User: Fold these one by one.
Assistant:
Number 1:
Amino acid sequence: RPVLLSVICHPPQNYPLYIRSVPTENELKFHYTVHTSLDVVDEKISAMGKALVDQRELYLGLLYPTEDYKVYGYVTNSKVKFVMVVDSSNTALRDNEIRSMFRKLHNSYTDIMCNPFYNPGDRIHSRAFDNMVNSMMMQVC
Amino acid sequence: ITEVCGAKRVGYFGPAQFYIALKLIAAAQSGFPVRIESIKNELPLPRFMALKNDSEVRYGTPAELHGVKFQVPHATLEKNSYKRTDEGDKQEPKSPPMSPICSPPASPSTYQRIPLTYGYGKSRSGLEQHHGAPYEVRHPTHQQDGSSSGNYGAKPALACSTLSRSLSVEREQPDSSAHYSDDPWRITEEQRDYYVNQFRSLQPDLNSFISGSVAKNFFTKSKLPIPELSHIWELSDVDCDGALTLPEFCAAFHLVVARKNGYQLPETLPETLLPDYLQAASLKPLRDCALFDSYSESLPGSQQPRDFSRTEKTSAEEVPDNSALLQDTNKDDKQALNLSTAVKMIPKEFQHLTVKTAAQEPNALKARPRSRSYSSTSIEDAMKKGEEPPTPPPRPQKSHSRASSLDLNKIFQQNTQAVRSGWLPPPPPALPPRPCISQTEQVSEVEIHSQMNRPPSQAEENSSAKKEVVLAQPPSKPTRRKLRTEAQGLETPELSPTINVTSSLPAVKPHLPVQKQSSKQKRAIQTAIRKNKEANAVLARLNSELQQQLKEVHKERIALETQLEQLRPVTVL
């Protein structure tokens, strides 16, 4: 059951800083999905207007006729977007779990930011981050 | 091989994994595929290149012994735990019962370290243990050693000459030694002192933090690639606050040093490098750092330094505090020394950069060519150490030319300071802002003149300095003053930007008698200074010219912009 995770840089570039998917086939399709979902994310951000946008969750319910999967989004205060694609057959995943996963991601991301050797906008190569993501994805799959 | 034998899975090489790995090596070398089944075959002993006879024997015996054991249980065994207990059982008659988890790492860890260490002889004693020598559970750290050694993984091929060397040398491992010298992740006292001094140079208050950017600049000088530095930071900044406390800094520094000496970085921070551990450890009394000799500088290549560590120790050093130290080196301490040796090699680079000494001067300063004395307790010695590398450090990394010329300037300042006095107070931790290089260069030149007190060279260098002074931009005058006053108390404050040179001469002359060094050294230093001055002069001139151009271009641009504004009377602001 595919799960894909991506961390996307803040606007205006909106390129991915980190993409990880389990399993790794069909990755391109997920990349595409993530990219298209960015539009929806942006739309939601602007809709929020002045309100705080952290802990925000986006449930897209994007459904293909052949495959179905859900796309979740999360935006930090600095407009860094986390996008997660999970298979709809994975009904075990509940809202709370998704939220907690995003929270963990956010924490790890801030840890990366604290590293002076990391330049914001670079791709994320941190092993700690990788480990955290791996463990999270193992949990889900 | 690592994966097959299961070390990857458990994270370290227990005896079972170790034996399996050896058998797999033999299998691979005999052309069999690397699979568990291969172990079943009758295999010749694994061949490790450049192995001396006695070590071959030693390696042979355990493999044989366990090879025998392997044949029988293997058919029924799964990979790891079962085998391990088997091995454990069989081992029992030979040695006190080993718990599969925590006991073995003595030998495997040393084995793992063999490709990387400079003579950690633990493997020898470790192998002896296989033969039934009383097995001492070495250190509680072995557990985490194991986990870190798991990363060293399948490097048996690298065993090579380091293995032979370490095996052929008799090493007694004093278990009671407080230095656990076989553990590269454990910081010895000397290293700790060194790290603390470095910390102090960056941040005088030992209880406070080093900020991320400061630490970044500092560690960047170690010339490790940025991803590795990033990983090191990740490991050592345990509380992830973007700043390094003293124990975090020591851990980070230690990791840098280890990395430069060829160790792979662990995936997780070894226990001995945890801040809590380090803080507790820092309360231990300072060990007499009598071990540290001068080491010849060497690149932290993996194979070379062990030879260096040998030669280093035996080379005669003229520094007084070293002569006694040399005699102290015994096998006991060699292991501690070895990593520290390696450590010292790195600090050289650091010091070379942090202290920023001129390249040619160290040779002249000390009669002995390249050795350095390491006394971790004084910055003066540390500086001397830093002065020794004979060639100017290449600074290719993130710094641009500006920074490197800054360094040169600082070099002269620092160096002359050291020469002058037994200069103990640490150098100013951060370079003061230097808006204009030409100014600083002139300043440093002037300062150096006064410091070195060499009238003839002064005359010639003063004239060149004068030229640069003329090119000076007025707004930088206050900067120059600031630099000067902060750097030397003795500098005559009346040196004005334009007249400084001439007035400096008379002010400087009284200092002449202060400097009493051998004339040979002086001359060498002089020539070095002269060359550097010339280089500086050229660069400064170029810089000022470019700045002039820049100014003009700016003016043009402003003019054009105002024109544009005028031509567009209606603009939406």
Number 2:
Amino acid sequence: MASTRCAACKYLRRRCPSDCIFSLYFPSNNPQRFAHVHKIFGASNIGKMLQDLPVHRRADAADSLYYEAHCRIKDPVYGCVGIINILLQEIYNVQCQIAKIQAEIAFLGTHAQSDQTQYQQLQIAPNLDPNFLSEQKGLSNSFDDSSTWFF
Amino acid sequence: MGGNSPCASCKLLRRRCAKDCIFAPYFPSDDPHKFAIVHKVFGASNVSKMLQELPLHQRADTVSSLVYEANARVRDPVYGCVGAISYLQNQVSQLQMQLAVAQAEILCIQMQQEPAPITTTSPVLLDADDKSSYYLHQNNLPQFLAFSSSNNNVIYDSFKKESLFGQDMIS
């Protein structure tokens, strides 16, 4: 039974050894994955990067390299950095919206509090001595606007 | 007037720097580290091919983004830039949740202050997954929430220290 070469060795047209560093991360059923990383990084760079990492980190490294290569092929000028810029802009926009709404909440809260205070002052008035009230009536006639008592 | 000194790439590659050297405008000899790191991650021939396939006016930005990605990969050999993307996607999701909460709060306040019946429908609060996938689908961004940078602080700090193409987005 012939053993299948990994996508890397197929692409590079070479024999796939049993300890091939690419075989676990670039299976033969996904040739595009290796083609993309090879186009951007080069097979020898990928091999060096994977070799410099402990075995349990290599799968994630291969995935992230593929993602970066994919982004670079889609956007040859900015690659992943284009996505980072979009995300940074979005963060800034959402932070501005949150700040706006929080300012509005603070304003509405203050407004409601001052209405509450005025309402409480109005409630206090009926508890005054009726004699005092009649005296005030006499005084208030001398003002143009009796509402100035409360402001 | 003396001859032109070789650019950083030709110095590193130990070759004659031609007049029409594709690297010379972007890798000056006074910054050898810039080319060294790009060569380490991408390789000189790959960078040369990428630049050759692009119009002149886009090459400077391309080099800047390649340098940024190479630096990210050297700092974080497992996730590189992708760790930063994953981190920022999480931030966006969290901020959108905060925004939804704030919007609900202000709606409550407005309803309390105006007790007349409101005919508009109440806002639908999306859960975290819905929101992030909504945002990502709107912008056609692949979701990489599974990635976490092996050192988030390293990548995040780079946003504060380095400005991406002259823009400081995070205050």
